[in-house]
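Exercise 3.2. Students should predict the tertiary structure of the chain below and write it as structure tokens, then compare their answer with the key that follows.

Predict this chain's 3D structure.
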Amino acid sequence: MKGCPLRCSWCSNPEAQNFYPEIAFNKSRCIGCEYCIEVCPTGAITMLGNGKVRIKRRLCTNCGECAEICPARAIKLFGEYMSIGDVVRVVEEDSAFYWRSGGGITVSGGEPLSQAEFVHELLKFCRERGIDTAVEISGYANWEDVEMVCRYANLIFYDIKHIDSNTHKAFTGVTNELILENIKRIANYFPKIPIIARTPIIPGFTDSEDNIKAIADFLSQVESLEEYELLPYHEFGGPKYHQLGRRYSLSGLQPPSQECMAMLRELAQKATTGCKIS
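Answer key:
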């Protein structure tokens, strides 16, 4: 699902932050054919002296005409508008595989809670057809939307990035009180739905022993918690920022070491009981 109310500094899916389709340009693939210049209705694309094109973002309306005509696929459109039926047709193409493997559909983002009615209807539709359902959410939404989405989920992946509200806001753009409250409400209202909590381990941001211990202590109160995952930082999303014409603020940041991850997992294991740490 495209669109998210958070702006995490380390976000690996920048193409899913905004709620509308966006043009992405991979200049290394550009062959300088100029077809995109010819079809651009706003004059947002110009040719540079090196035989590559440039997109003037302030003029671009993300109409997608350039992406449709680009023979080298240097320009593409991140995001498209789809109906419930459109999504279900894609999902059901692999339905036989779900039944054999025990898998299903996972709705991620962006933030699925930001399009709660759509996700609710999609999950309901899948459940009626025997397709297992999961959602990946941050929990930053009003309870009505959280309840609507979780009602037809078989599994919930839930992000808790930092236990300190001020630090959380500094690096995600929002405070964490609503997030912490909603995971407790989910456990109370839907006690039979397993929750897998996740914390991205970002060096210098979320990787302190105090933060992980405090999150693990908090999660020990969530009775339906099945697993707590510590996810090491990676730079895989970096190139997408450049393709979208944005700056990646964490460029050059190194992933945490295996020793650091092992230490944090051991710390989390000691602070929680009855759930898997990974």
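Discussion points: The chain has two domains: 22-78, 82-277. The CA atoms of residues 161 and 199 lie 5 Å apart.
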